[in-house]
């Protein structure tokens, strides 16, 4: 049996391996997800035809008024880029089919052509690209239409709304038999230089939320709910002079990472220089893990969550010389409202500058949010207790500064009240 080589982003190899009813990928621009799925529809069409199976590959989008709005051109380019596939298919201006005519492509808009989809005989694979805006009704009608034994539904999309029908169905609670991954430009081994230039330009000129949506596969969140909205940006930096460094650690649990940060302050700007984090980090390994990733942590004062004094004691000790230690680690002081005071302190900086290597802190900066009323969409005062491990470590690191600022504000209030009487 002859073998053919297909190149895919490594992250997609498990998606297309083995049996699955649903396969998919979501993420930002430049990830190669559309081209990869287009290529794999052709590979599967080849496999079906060679096995004597007849049917159609349905390529759909929510809206499609003409073939120019379909994925036809992507599929043509994918086939033509692979010589053995190019030799196997007939490609015309308005059709793609195997030369033995067992398998052909059908292109369809789901919004206006759902009823006609039902009449398409033997749908082997339904690939829905740009699926973010597909309605729940469309999904409900499509799924039972793809009913041949061994048939599959493939989904690719750039997320936009947290809770969209596609998001709920295939990302939040994927159905049984799903192989779906997040795929971004960082997962594309062939990410082109021209897009890298565009990405770097966008990082400089766009607000981070827009950048994250375009390139990192993030939602277009309600920016009013984001606690650090408008306060941070991503940039490389080298600080010859600064206040600090300041170190903080938030202890993890079974599902949460033990998270550490190294910070610096210059010209009323907070710089996030390094981060370190891992889920399931054993107490014996914490000190070495942090020392290897947060330069200088063993030489400076480190403030950690005071809720775990036994962990602080363990990390401070060398265990009789058998492990590294962080000798100047101490529990941070907490008080009623310390979380809110910490947030106010972070927002008091001119800006928070995050080094590109601090990807987990950046994720939290984008997602740490206030609660939103389910019915009205109003932003509430309560804080959502998630996406905050590295931010909590930052609050701990800056604990004395937060307390000083709080005390200064406390001195100012009575004076103003007295002046108003």
TrEMBL record:
Top-rank taxon of the source lineage equals Bacteria
Q: Which Pfam families match?
A: Terminase_3, Terminase_3C
Phage terminase large subunit C-terminal domain span:
250-398
Q: Where is the Phage terminase large subunit N-terminal domain?
A: 21-217
Q: Which InterPro entries match?
A: P-loop_NTPase, Terminase_L_C, Terminase_L_N, Viral_DNA_packaging_terminase
Protein name according to UniProt = Terminase
């Amino acid at each position: 049996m002859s073998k053919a080589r297909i190149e895919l982003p490594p992250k997609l190899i498990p998606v297309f391996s083995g049996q699955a009813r649903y396969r998919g990928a979501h993420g930002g621009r430049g990830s190669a997800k559309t081209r990869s799925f287009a290529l794999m529809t052709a590979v599967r069409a080849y496999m079906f035809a060679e096995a004597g199976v007849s049917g159609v590959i349905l390529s759909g989008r929510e809206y499609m008024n003409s073939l120019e709005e379909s994925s036809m051109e992507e599929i043509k380019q994918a086939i033509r880029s692979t010589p053995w596939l190019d030799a196997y298919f007939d490609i015309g201006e308005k059709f793609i089919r195997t030369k033995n005519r067992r398998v052909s492509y059908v292109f369809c808009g789901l919004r206006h052509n759902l009823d006609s989809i039902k009449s398409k005989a033997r749908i082997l694979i339904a690939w829905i690209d740009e699926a973010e805006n597909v309605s729940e009704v469309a999904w409900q009608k499509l799924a039972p239409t793809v009913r041949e034994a061994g048939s599959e539904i493939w989904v690719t999309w750039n997320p936009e709304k947290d809770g969209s029908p596609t998001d709920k169905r295939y990302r939040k609670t994927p159905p049984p038999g799903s192989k779906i991954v997040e795929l971004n430009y960082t997962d594309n081994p062939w990410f082109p230089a021209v897009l890298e230039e565009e990405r770097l330009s966008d990082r400089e000129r766009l607000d981070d939320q827009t950048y994250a949506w375009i390139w990192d596969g993030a939602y277009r969140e309600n920016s009013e709910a984001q606690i650090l909205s408008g306060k941070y940006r991503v940039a490389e930096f080298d600080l010859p002079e600064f206040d600090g460094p300041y170190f903080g650690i938030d202890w993890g649990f079974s599902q949460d990472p033990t998270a550490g940060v190294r910070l610096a302050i210059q010209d009323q700007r907070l710089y996030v220089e390094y981060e370190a984090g891992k889920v399931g980090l054993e107490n014996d390994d914490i000190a070495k893990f942090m020392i290897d990733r947060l330069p200088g942590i063993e030489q400076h004062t480190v403030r950690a969550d005071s809720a775990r004094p036994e962990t602080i004691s363990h990390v401070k000790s060398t265990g009789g010389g058998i492990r590294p230690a962080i000798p100047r680690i101490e529990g941070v002081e907490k008080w009623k409202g310390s979380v809110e005071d910490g947030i106010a302190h972070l927002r008091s900086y001119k800006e928070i500058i995050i080094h590109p290597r601090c990807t987990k802190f950046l994720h939290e900066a984008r997602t740490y949010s206030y609660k939103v009323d389910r019915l009205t969409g109003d932003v509430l005062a309560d804080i959502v207790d998630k996406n905050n491990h590295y931010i909590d470590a930052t609050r701990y690191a800056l604990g004395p500064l937060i307390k000083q600022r709080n005390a200064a504000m406390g001195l100012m209030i009575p004076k103003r009240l007295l002046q108003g009487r």
